[in-house]
Amino acid sequence: MHSKSILLIFISATLITLNSQAKPQREDRDENRVPPTSDQIIERLDSDGSGSITGDEAKGFIAKYFDRIDANGDGEISEEELLHARENRGQKPKQGREDIKAADTDQNGAISIDEATEAGLKKMVENFDRIDTDGDGQISEKEMRQLRKHMDNRKQDT
């Protein structure tokens, strides 16, 4: 009986020690937690005070997807680009292709700036001249393939 008491005390002491060393639950995992706003993210990461996030300043998720978020390819992420990335979070590339195909309202196999504007393809409108490499005022399927290839190469470089 004496050995059972000692064993019980030993097990209790071990459990108390283990419990006190257990990793506490994180309070920030609360269901009501609000993610930081774009300006809060920039404020936190923008160490040089430029109002945008450079590749050197980016951390975590933003560093991992820097090239995707940097829509205009200038090497900095603005608050507008962060907002746009949040709006499009979860959008699959295939869905984007379907949106582009639907924008071709005249069914000629190319997208004009007017069609892109009407379809709400902001990135395409903002970068229309860069995407329209032959300068004919239309973005052809060939030019879209070139853009996708360029974007894939940028992703692989990171």
Overview of this protein structure:
- The protein has 158 residues and is mostly helical.
- The chain has 2 domains: 35-90, EF-hand (Recoverin, domain 1, Orthogonal Bundle), CATH 1.10.238; 93-157, Recoverin, domain 1.
- Helices cover 56% and strands 6% of the residues.
- It contains 10 helices and 4 strands, in the order H-H-E-H-H-E-H-H-E-H-H-H-E-H.
- The chain has helices at 2-21, 38-45, 60-64, 66-69, 79-87, 93-103, 113-118, 122-126, 128-131, 141-157; strands at 53-54, 76-77, 110-112, 138-140.
- The strands form 2 sheets. Strands 1-2 form a two-stranded antiparallel sheet. Strands 3-4 form a two-stranded antiparallel ribbon.
- The protein is elongated and about 95 Å long.
- The model has no long low-confidence stretch (mean pLDDT 79).
Instruction: Flag low-confidence runs.
Output: none
> Fraction of residues in helices?
55-70%
How many alpha or pi helices?
A: 10
Structural class: mainly alpha
Main β sheet profile: 2 strands, antiparallel
Q: How many domains comprise the coordinates? A: 2
Q: Shape from CA axes?
A: elongated
Number of strands: 4
What is the correct CATH architecture of the largest domain? Answer: Orthogonal Bundle
Q: Strand content of the residues, in percent?
A: 5-15%
